[in-house]
Amino acid sequence: MADAPTPAPLIFDRALVRRRRRRAQALGPATVLLDLVAAELAERLTAVLRRFAIAVDLGTPGAAVRAALARLDTIDAVVAADALAERSAAGKIGTLVAADEEALPFRDASLDLVVSALSLQFVNDLPGVLVQIRRALKADGLFVAALIGGETLTELRQAFAAAESDIEGGASPRVAPFADVRTLGDLLRRAGFALPVADSDRYTLRYGSAFELMHDLRRMGATNALVARRRTPLRRPTLMRMAEIYARRFADPDGRVRATFEIIWLSGWVPHESQQQPLRPGSAKARLADALGTREISTGEKAGGDQ
């Protein structure tokens, strides 16, 4: 009897993630980061010269991404798959399906395009999710996602660590351990995607204070949802010390503080025979030296000088 697969470690409290998103909607969501990502996603898809009959927007908060998809002439139908299945006056675009990112309801080989923005960094089993996405896509289907990267909120992370060390004698986890470009690119390959690409953008947003940043994070639904988070309320002396350190280390001359957001972009195709394939070793029909207009140097021969 085969051993059961090892379950993914529980890093994020998924129920809390959903509650935080509902709170963000009630507060009035802060969408500046999502708007930037939606515009960049549309630009990237515009460069893809093919048509997509069915596109799924997976787990993205709000309507910015599916609105951007609906404006593209190369996409026929947009489906939003979201655990909250939110609908707002600005979000009545396409079809909504109640679905958790970790348990997709789509048939194998049924979709042409899957996109996701600022959502998949909060799943516990990202490798498993990527495999599900690859299976749901048709041959030559495309996956594009934007995730929060490991350099995000580095200023807040440092300020909290220093403040807790000063006031409480030790630090607790307050900012999620997001992955880096290389790790996410490797996950794409392991999930079976062809032509995988991973790259990153960095945005610097500025705020009047660390408190304004934290308020915006609540309105993004992006506050601490780690399973290992400290369950006791944040002490006021620690919070004030954090804000003081943040302002001293990360303020611009005008007094406004910086907050870094790293966005990692992933893209990959489901394998298909029409895709470009690497040449077999030794099958090249032209020499690199000829293409570069240089003299080829054999193994063991020294460059320059008489032999």
Topology:
Blueprint: H1 14-27, H2 32-46, E1 52-58, H3 64-70, E2 75-82, E3 95-98, E4 111-117, H4 126-136, E5 137-148, H5 154-168, H6 181-190, E6 194-207, H7 210-219, H8 236-250, E7 257-269, H9 288-292
Parallel strand pairs: 1-2, 1-4, 2-3, 4-5
Antiparallel strand pairs: 5-7, 6-7
Task: Give a brief rundown of this model.
With 307 residues, the protein is of the alpha/beta class.
* CATH structural architecture of the domain at 14-153 and 177-206 and 261-272: 3-Layer(aba) Sandwich
- Looking at CATH, the homologous superfamily of the domain at 14-153 and 177-206 and 261-272 is Vaccinia Virus protein VP39
Beta strands, count: 7
Rg is 23 Å
Explain what this protein looks like in three dimensions.
This protein has helices at residues 14-27, 32-46, 64-70, 126-136, 154-168, 181-190, 210-219, 236-250, 288-292, and strands at 52-58, 75-82, 95-98, 111-117, 137-148, 194-207, 257-269. The chain is of the alpha/beta class and 307 residues long. It has a domain at 14-153 and 177-206 and 261-272: Vaccinia Virus protein VP39 (Rossmann fold, 3-Layer(aba) Sandwich), CATH 3.40.50.150. It has a seven-stranded mixed beta sheet with strand order 3-2-1-4-5-7-6, with helices on both faces. Strand 4, helix 4 and strand 5 form a beta-alpha-beta unit. The radius of gyration is 23 Å and the shape is elongated.
Features of the shown structure:
elongated, alpha/beta, Rossmann fold, 7 strands, 307 residues, seven-stranded mixed sheet, 9 helices, single chain
